[in-house]
User: Fold these one by one.
Assistant:
Number 1:
Amino acid sequence: MVSAYALFTHPFPTSSSSSSVDSLFSYPPPPPSNATFRSHEWFPLLKLAKTPRPEPNPLLPQLGLRPNAQFLLQCSSNPVTADIGTVFSLLQAVGIDEKETKVLLEKNPALALTSLDSLRARIECFNSVGLDGLVLSNLITKCPNLLTAEEIDPFLSFVRHDMEAKLEPGQLRRLFRAADVRFLVGFEYKVGLLVRRGVPEEKIVDVLNKVNLYKALCLKSAEEIDRTITFLNRFGGIDLIVRRPSLLNYDLETQLAPRVEFLTEVSGGDENATGVLLGKLPAILSYTVDHTKGHVELLRSFAGLSDEQIFKFLLVFPNVVSASRERKMRPRIKFLKECGLSSNDIYKFLIKAPLFLGLSFEDNIAYKLVFLVKIGYRYRTRDMAAAMGSATRTSSDNLQRVIELFLSYGFSCADIVVMSRRHPQILQYSHSALEKKMEYLINDMGREIEELLAFPAFLGYKLDDRIKARYEVKRKILGEGMSLNKLLTVSSESFKPKTPAYVIDLNVE
């Protein structure tokens, strides 16, 4: 009988195999959960035949190998001596030098017992999935059994045919370097499980290319993967995995479940709300409970927010968990407190300007503070905080252009402060949109630009849908003189202009 470590036929038969992922649905039942660790139960090793030791091959001393590096393979009833010189040449062709070849032959005697056709076929299969050149030679040097282990054949066949060789070579390289080949057993079944549980076939390759294949599939049994998907179904299910495949890397009991449970606790036990949060940022589950708890505790103890307020803020800006607590969050909350904001004020501020806790100070916030101070805002005042909240929602470049635009129309810095105190949002509007509205106010409506001092909210209404539409309607009835405030602030339901009896329609025949 031939050793499973000794002889390999061509790993991929000439008969055609399906290249469609549909084949993932027809796999046999999964092996037991311990099959990965006891692969010999599924791939029994065959005993090497005991044969008399032949005379030493004269080629061995030339290669620097000890005589006991010569092996005899009992195939059927005929003894076959492996041609080590040819094996040596084949490995050299792969890029493995003489010294490394000697080490490989001593570390993995099965190389000398494996048919050259099988070795060549195995190398060609590695090449077909993108592993060649220096990458392949390094892999073989580190893991010599890649050329002889029987578990490699079904895995490479699956990658080559079912996955259409679309798995990234880098992924395969990392997998082969990290995993014992025994952990490849059942890989194709686990991929099929993901498809059957809802991962779209067109997305499966993308998912596999974004996970740690060793952690996500090889180290886990099919049952573990299935339990993870079942658990996540309460909070968004397979969609979370498709959007954030790395969730499969985490252990359900020690990582995923505790993280979800903590967020659910902050939500007040509302699993639906927790699902909404996870749907907005599945990556929030990448952070440990201790990490997220630290952010929540800072908002709770230092900012004075309630858990309800904290969770609502997380829904608005879940990426706050990526902000440094000591470098960003604490000093900025301290700034708001120094501006005189209460805990409730801070909550309202953060809901409107959540990025204030996440933006870079040196590259963003510092510039905006300088602009605001230069036009007349006093540092650490409530007005400054309100202006900073609006400035947070725009770029530094746009803020500068807005200020320059007002100055070009004759407003002073003090005027800009007055307008922005009454309507802070003018600091965040697009400078080009503001210019169009100001031009329309002056040229088409025939009004004075100074009217914006009393009613800066004019700049917040849509030009075509609100300002132009209403002005054209009212002008026909009331003429040019009308209050900008009354023109624009009345609700759409109340804005139902009626034509007076004395207005004659000259178009009626």
Note: Residues 436 and 463 are 8 Å apart (CA to CA).
Number 2:
Amino acid sequence: MANSNNQLFVCSFFFAIFVALAVSLLPLALSRSLTEEATHAFLDVSASLKQAQAVLSFDPETAQPFGEHDEDMQQQTFANSSSFSVQLHQRDFLLKTSYKDYKSLVFSRLERDSARVRSLTTKLQVSLDGVSESDLEPMKTELRPEDLSTPIVSGTSQGSGEYFSRVGVGSPPKPFYMVLDTGSDINWLQCQPCSDCYQQSDPIFNPSSSSSYKTLPCTSQQCGSLENPGCSTGKCQYQVSYGDGSYTVGDFVTETLSFGNTGSANGIALGCGHQNEGLFVGAAGLLGLGAGKLSLLSQIKASSFSYCLVDRNSGRSSTLEFNSAPPSDSVTTPLLRNQKIGTFYYVGLTGLSVGGQPVSIPSSSFQFDAAGNGGIIIDSGTAITRLQTEAYNALRDAFVQLTRHLPSTSGVSLFDTCYDLSSMTSVRVPTVSFRLADGKSLQLPAKNYLIPVDSSGTFCFAFAATRSSLSIIGNVQQQGTRVSFNLAESRVGFSPNKC
């Protein structure tokens, strides 16, 4: 018996030492995971193609994936110290698609995305050149009639709106799908009477049904903050036009916005649009989450916000959160401000890696100069990451060098590097990482940089070159990652697998 007790004591002693060592080494292991990069990742080809097919078969008439409880919206007073959130949904699971095959859907997405990028770069150039919005000439686009018939919006500061949040407007609150846009400031929605409005999935907002609806006088501070305000019978008028010909015009008012059952904000300045045209798919309007004076964030004095974008081929939803603490495992980098344009969120990016090795790209490729040119922004409305041509070529060449074992195929649309993976169920590929300040890296999942462009197994490298000096981190690369903007400390954090 004594011998058994001694053996038990010895085993317990060594087990305690093992646990202590494991706990003490855990922070070191976590620390190393932020700075050391893996060389390869695995892409689940079969799962990606299955999700692609799901987009085409989804029918909102018979499926309710979002679990929204519109009647549960409660009126609560917003406090700066409180946090609140709303559900975030992918656009293609709001309306039944009119496309018969996945390749056609991809081409439509890429066309909208190109219009978005042209619009953002136009907005930047307009600011750098000191041009007024009223001087803008509509740009010619190559969008097909079916793209316009599926209610989409794209513009200099709003874009195609690939992700939607469900927000209550008015008192009592009526729920509306609103485009989530970090590249714009003005909040707006379509309003009755509507002399020229595009199709939306919700009934058009009726101001007479809300007790909190108030028009703004022309002399108000909010009206004076508009870039191009108008005045009619003493009431403030807003008009926002975009580089691709999209526009919204109407009364500039204040209203109450409700965020599910987590709270509400009173007196939010927004546009009540009576004339609206463009590529706004299914949304009732737009939430401007840029850094300008009239953005939703500035008006509610939010110290932080975050979102997690689910896979665009997934019917799942996630959340848009305000004033909530970021995940403890976030990898952070400086959030930079370009004095030439207050809307965009510039990111402190130092480079890129492929297969765990830095790509030879000058650090200046991701910095903006004194004139405001260059730099890289993070944008919720752009899908495909755009890099300056020199940076893109270096990234692509490094990736191609390490994927010679994969069967290549011809390019598709804006993608020049594609592979035929039709005979594979899973494939080993080199990792791709963003190299952040402070020596940290954000490693992307394989499905965030090799995406299907048809349902037969063609996958393309999901980056593209831009002739503009402005680079953009798009939402395909952000998928599955909670992106946290700490506005008070000017930091942006990335935490994978937090949707």
Note: The longest strand covers residues 264-277.
Number 3:
Amino acid sequence: MNFYFSMPILFSFYLSWVLFCSLASPNSVNLPLKAPSLGNWLVTEGWMEPNMFYGIKNNDLLDGTQVQLISTKLKKYLTAENGSETILMANHNSSSASSWQTFRLWRINETFYNFRLSNKQFIGLENQGNKLVAVSATEKFPEPFQITRKNGEPHRVRFRASNGYFLQAKSEMQVTADYKGPSTWEENDPSVFNMTIVSTMHGEYQITNGYGPDKAAKFMRDHWKSYITEEDFKFMSQNGLNAVRIPVGWWIAYDPKPPKPFVGGSLQALDNAFRWAQKYGMKVIVDLHALRVSQNGSPHSGSRDGFQEWSDSDIQETVAIIDFLASRYADHPSLVAIELMNEPKAPDLKLDSLKRYYKAGYDTVRKYSSSAYVILSNRLGGEWSELLSFASNLSRVVIDVHFYNLFWDNFNKMSVQQNIDYIYRQRSSDLRNVTTPDGPLSFVGEWCCEWEAEGASKRDYQRFAEAQLDVYGRATFGWAYWAYKCHLNHWSLRWMIENNYIKL
């Protein structure tokens, strides 16, 4: 072989090989993605694994539990109608109750609580006396009340105020903290109330504050080590899944010592996930699922009491979380995308505020990576196309929509076939609304194979899964099933695969 003649050929071959290696490198992305969400791992969602809360004393009275209280003597609801500096009364007819008769608990420990009203104020003692009023949280520290429950009848309760005395309903217009006598637990005892639990919350705040500082750290670290392991990544890679969507909470950026009651350790678990993903040829979507003060009020947002309070004033802090995540993982070959916020909720979270945050978050990711996709979640209750024009001005962005045949009364009436038809007709249309030729990519970031159809057979579930895989497979970025693991079988992608309900 003539050496001088072969040099151009060898050089051309070398360039081709470099190009091939770059395209086949771990940084390359094969779209669309097929992923599960690793829900209830680094952000707790108690409905997915209720036994996580069984070891908490008074686990029906966690942060955010909404209760209504009826005086057993007067047969009237306690109420703080009209809000600020309103005297607490017991004059509301017991045949109905509204938000003014509903109190949200802030748990101090297993027996002491603050009581928050629908206007976000707390119940306290007026001028440190014995008259109960609604007071602003910004004016004085919330009043702690100790809850005593009757043995065998935990719904029958008494409340001890910080002055050492129990609350009593003296009359419809007088609820005071000055009862000194022993309780008989009888109906005519003015210090006895019947407590109705209206709703509960089971998220990260509830579980860490519920177990308390002495137990929460070990409990959560044991959970992170066992709930998702390397074996799970091996299983996923062997069963047609090429990515994972990992929800994280804002507190991960403060690891190893996040603000209380959150505990450190989730960052190490996320590092492990990246290592396992690289080993098994998978990509990682880091999803900022829980924001401080909450973007939607749900337990999965890390909310303490169900209020949605995220706004413009929280943009800077939230961008700092994105900065932390992007700077840490931008160069990792398994990172494919960062999702800036999960499920912001309309109308309280304004679209203009969301766009301002999304632009700042996008710019922050781009400081560290030109290749990582940035995922923008549509608002719950917003228009499907509300982010399209905004996102079209950005590069490598994705619009995330969540499709469930649940959470809407009309689904309760649908038959098996009607549910399947809905996927092919309505969901196809919804997906087309966020899928454009030259605009952002589309992503069905959450879906599952559960519905309200009664008496469905295994074959019915298989057909439902096939319909969704067909339609959601048209999303240009891909899809993520909610979730990988769950104690409810049809919500668990692993169970669905192992039991031949879903074939990928």
Note: Confidence is low (pLDDT under 50) at residues 1-26.
Number 4:
Amino acid sequence: MAASMASQAVVRGLRAAATPKHLFLHKFKSARLSPRRWLNLQEYQSKKLMQESGVAVQRFYVADTAPDALAAAKRLDVKEIVLKAQILAGGRGKGVFDSGLKGGVHLTKDPAVVGELANKMLGFNLTTKQTPKDGVKVKTVMVAEALDISRETYFAILMDRAWNGPVMVGSPQGGVDIEEVAARTPELIFKEAIDIFEGVRDEQALQMAANLGFKGPLERQAADQIKRLYDLFLKVDATQVEVNPLGETPEGQVVCFDAKINFDDNAEFRQKAVFAMDDNAESDPTETEAAKWDLKYIGLDGNIACFVNGAGLAMATCDIIDLHGGKPANFLDLGGGVQERQVYEAFKLLTADPKVEAILVNIFGGIVNCAIIANGITKACRELELKVPLIVRLEGTNVQEAKRILKESGLPITSAEDLDDAAKKAVAAIKK
């Protein structure tokens, strides 16, 4: 599922007051911006992980055809069924399908209706407040048992630098934006640090359950769910497990009705099964391809491609292009451990964008060897037969060797003395 950072905001004591925005964000607030791509799981995938760790969730099945959805509804054999379209965007309940069906979440007591609804969901685009304007095609639906919720609470476990480890965050007010609760009634936010070597102690879990408002036998049941959620948190190398709501049913059950899980990207090597579930069908293809080469790419709406090492330098490059009357076509950060092949692949991504009319390379070599960048640039220019103007500014480690490589290549590369010079030349190149 699309991951929420709400609980981090709570722990750090963030409030509704606005913070100063970087010029980059202000200037391009109307451009298409998206964060670095993390592991994305659908709702049913997150619930499957929870189920495998003994966390109480609704009974459910997944279907990719209307007949399968109907069969799943009959197999559940429950009083009421909830049918949910599976896409990564939020706001599904108020979304609209291009089939004419309104709502990506439906309740019914008749299994036959599930088949009819699924027939209007599967293969059609669902548009919500978080999707592109044309929506996202629905390929799977989740058919689940509908449970009544008599009370909703909020619970999360996350890694937090301020606490040097995992922290539990809870509130008896769930099912709403937790940021609003933190801003209006901060006394209803409860936090408890966890000793990562010791884990969640019984008394900690029971105290949090009491803080969430569970009483009698439900307090022990909620405490058990809290401990199981922590086991899941460790098991999958999560940085956050957020349950909103952690609900109480009229029948006396404590159930995790919805969950968002963030994963430690550096743990991929030991979480192969989890990362294999990554659903990138809804991600921008260029961003997905960039991630394969450990490149941080964000598409923008301009025509000057930016090829930079370091996020701060990339933002500064976008800013100065704008300052000189140009518009950046992207934000591309090579990072520090770049190799020639990554430079080549980065050029492939940039030149594949039909909007790009010029490329500005801005490298400040600290741990990056400028000669490696120069070799990658010349290789890419020759093999890709670069057709657009290329402006290069290099400074730092091995820069003289890098400049020699570019000069002796015989390629039509425009050198720049500094960032301001580079931006001026890039803007001038597209105005010719």
Note: The CA atoms of residues 55 and 229 lie 7 Å apart.
